[in-house]
Predict the 3D structure of the following.
Amino acid sequence: MTDIIIIGAGTAGLSAAIYALRAGKSVLLMEQLTYGGQIINTPEVENYPGIKSISGFDFAQGLYEQAEALGAELKYEQVTGIDDGEVKKVKTSSGEYECKAIILATGAKNRPLGLDKETEFIGNGISYCATCDGAFFKGRVVAVNGGGNTALEDALFLSNYCKKVYLIHRRDEFRGEAKQVDKLKEKENIEFVLNATITELLGEDELSGVRVHDKLSGEDKDIELDGLFIAIGQMPENAAFAPLIELDKGGYIVAGEDCRTNVAGIFAAGDCRTKTVRQLTTAAADGAVAALAACAYAD
Ligand code: NAP
């Protein structure tokens, strides 16, 4: 039996693994896609204390290598449910694993706009990852939708490749850092389209533009585009735990700064839990807090 099973190998999960392994516990990490989590899509991380600048991919790789060197075992399996009891059980698409404590670190996935043709146009003009797909749009006209740090970073990143970048946001204030907004304002090839919502994706087999509704004037206008990068936040993926674990209205796991859920011995770390600040630093901090609490429980 494993001491601690960690579900999700993003920043929170890998940080938890490092802390638990260093405390002498056996750790099994379960991941459905690839290790690293959301940060692998961030071109440049400049706000992690002690690291002036690093790509999200390199950051994630470093975390993974650190956990692996300590003996972390990683299984690529989709978790379908968990059972409580003296021995806890994690059920996956391929089997069942027993452990003393569980850390849920499932992060969140990209929120879609929910418009017609959105899924059809993925890879045909629509992307949720500027780092992954930005290079395909070199010299072309693109838009980024959103007003958080992801959208701001994506717009800045794309402005280095693309002929023109529209930044479309539904308000005239940004949720992301003011310093990033200032950097964008200095770029000649970035145009802000504010108080605007995308109401239609234009094009037949591939995206050719968007229809945008101006909330102030009430007018609609079409913007011709080669690409649209959607960066309107994330949604948690905690449905598999809902029968046992308390979730809030948005689907986030209800847990405070101590990372404790409503079930003893099951902890939640990182973006998957209720919190106001979702950053790399807070994900890593959660990983440490949850791991030490899980270690104490599993003793
Ligand atoms: P976010 O901060 O939640 O921002 C989402 C943005 O999308 C908001 O501006 C929101 O508008 C807009 N939005 C939401 N739903 C929408 C819809 N249906 N239609 C149009 N616009 C919509 O998400 P994020 O930018 O992905 O960032 C997630 C977390 O990661 C944040 O805590 C962020 O600070 C963090 N992050 C950190 C770094 C870093 O540390 N370097 C990098 C990237 C992200 P409103 O503002 O009007 O609600």
In short: Residues 42, 45, 47, 111, 146-151, 153, 170-171, 175, 231-234, 278-280 surround NAP (CB under 6 Å). The radius of gyration is 21 Å. Helices lie at 11-22, 56-69, 130-133, 149-159, 178-185, 280-298.
